[in-house]
Amino acid sequence: MTISIEPSLGDSASSTGARPAGATANHSDSDALLGNYKRAPGRFARGEGVYLIDEKGQRYLDFVSGIAVNALGYSDAGLQRALHAAADGLVHVSNLYATSPGEQLAATLVEKSFADKIFFCNSGGEANEGAFKFARRWARAQGDAKHEIFALRGAFHGRLFGTLAATDRPSYRMPFRPLAPGIGIVERDIEDLSVALNEETAAAVILEPVQGEGGVRVLDAGFVREVRALTKERNVALIFDEIQCGLGRTGTLFAYEQFDVTPDILTLAKPIAGGLPMGAVLMTEAIASTIKPGDHGTTFGGGPFLASVANYVLSRVSDPALLESVRENGAWFGRQLQEIARRTGRIRAVRGIGYMWGIDVMGTASHVVNEAMSAGLLTCTAGEYTVRLLPPLVATRDELVLGLGILEEIL
Ligand SMILES: Cc1ncc(COP(=O)(O)O)c(C=O)c1O
Q1: Is the minimum distance from the CB of 129 to ligand 1 under 6 angstroms?
Q2: Is the pLDDT of residue 17 over 80?
Q3: Which of 19-33, 85-99, 113-127, 263-277 has the lowest mean pLDDT?
Q4: What pLDDT is recorded for position 59?
Q5: What's the average model confidence in pLDDT over 104-119?
Q6: How many helices (H) and strands (E) does the chain have?
Q7: 339 CA distance to ligand 1 centroid (A)?
Q8: Are residues 53 and 42 in contact, defined by beta-carbon separation less than 8 angstroms?
Q9: Confidence of residue 21 (pLDDT cuts 50, 70, 90)
Q10: Helix 100-112 and helix 304-317: axis angle, to 10°?
Q11: Which domains does the chain have, with CATH numbers?
Q12: Which residue's CA is the closest to the ligand 1 atom numbered 10?
């Protein structure tokens, strides 16, 4: 009898699974990273203000800001101090115990918003997943069949199974079916939403007041108010995803302030901890009162290191002078983009608010993004034809002028 032993997946190297010394010689370091990102050429080594600087010393004006994360730009002296001070304190303590920085951060968010209670987590996707759970917990307390969650056409709420079901990008969704059930997409139309929202079965509607990945679309304020009225009428929770558009990006601390509407739940992430991973779910007492110990949790959420840095970031992005400059410079920036569209004939539409703008270009957006990078300006796409511009909130009018100049030239 012959026994053939097939090599198992781990047998290529040694019995421990480790690769023998030197076996990686044919690989560059980046080969070890999963190929789930399409990365631009070069490697960034440091940053100063609104500039990122690569390993060769080339400077790039950054109108991506880590996709709306680096609100204070790079090497901000106050943020550096906050990071050093946080590192001198406790880094992690389990949520089995209380620590002051997280409590203080929650209290400040409550003081500055519609919310009564705050839950901290580690990313935007996780914040939205938490929001879905809290909304369902509340809804089930109203009626056992109430569970459906609706997102809008063009929405992006994350890439986890629940949030992916609420994200309107077929290419992101299709390879991973089946997604979480009970979550659907409806048109940005009050009639469609009215048909979809059955009081017996609907738990929540989630929307981005300004859709980011979906092409930088500022939702119509009248529509958002109608959604609020409809969700109230049908006893459905309204969730605002302000992960990208919140914390000063639109020129007010929260985007909802500009729509004259308050949600029941609001999610934050991206800029909140100055580039460290943190998310937050803000909610009313009505939602919070249905949550009991054990209903939800996350190991790192609201830890003292992250929260003390976030306390500093929040103090900066809620500074009225900063918000006023985002409002004024942002409106001016939008007018300049319209002018560039007129002069070049290479922009089909300009949309945005504050320091969050999208331009629909002729040809593909990725082509413009590549050209802009070669000319020293970082931008990113929001769909196939939209170039997205997200300068750090500290960018001055002069720095915006520089970016606009590069953009016009390459267009
Ligand atoms: C509006 C919105 N929601 C959710 C997310 C997901 O956040 P994260 O990548 O931190 O999971 C993003 C990220 O781009 C976003 O822009």
Answers
A1: no
A2: no
A3: 19-33
A4: 98
A5: 98
A6: 13, 17
A7: 31
A8: no
A9: low
A10: 30
A11: 44-68+320-410 (3.90.1150.10), 77-317 (3.40.640.10)
A12: 124
Q: Mean pLDDT of all residues in the chain?
A: 94
Instruction: Tell me if residue 354 falls in helix, strand or coil.
Output: coil
Q: Taking 90 as the threshold, does the pLDDT of residue 320 lie above it?
A: yes
CA of 156 to the centre of ligand 1 (A): 7
d(CA 268, CA 257): 15
The residue to mutate among 69, 123, 159, 243, having the most atoms of ligand 1 within 8 angstroms of its beta carbon, is 243
Structure tokens at 125: 């996707």
Percentage of the chain modeled with pLDDT above 70: 93
Q: Tens of pLDDT along 352-395? A: 999 999 999 999 999 999 999 999 999 999 999 999 999 999 99
- 133-172 b/e with 16+ CB inside 10 Å = b? bbbbbbbeeeeeebbbbbbbebbbbbbbebbbbbbbeeee
Amino acid 172 reads Y
Residue partners of 220: CB distance under 8 A and separation at least 6: none
Task: Report the residue count for the chain.
Answer: 411
Phi, psi (rounded to 5 degrees) for 184: -135, 170
CA of 243 to the centre of ligand 1 (A): 6
Q: List b or e across 15-25, with b for residues whose CB sees 16 or more CB atoms inside 10 angstroms.
A: eeeeeeeeeee
Q: Does the CB atom of residue 275 touch ligand 1 within 6 A?
A: no
Q: Does the CB atom of residue 213 touch ligand 1 within 6 A? A: yes
Ligand 1, atom 3, lies closest to the CA of 157
- Global confidence as pTM: 0.95
Is residue 209 within 8 Å of 268, Cβ to Cβ?
no
CA of 270 to the centre of ligand 1 (A): 7
Question: With a 6 A CB cut-off, is 158 part of the ligand 1 pocket?
Answer: yes
347 CA from centroid of ligand 1 (Å):
26
Distance between Cα 47 and ligand 1 center (Å):
23
DSSP per-residue string spanning 196-241 = H--TTTEEEEEE-SEESTTT-EEPPHHHHHHHHHHHHHTT-EEEEE
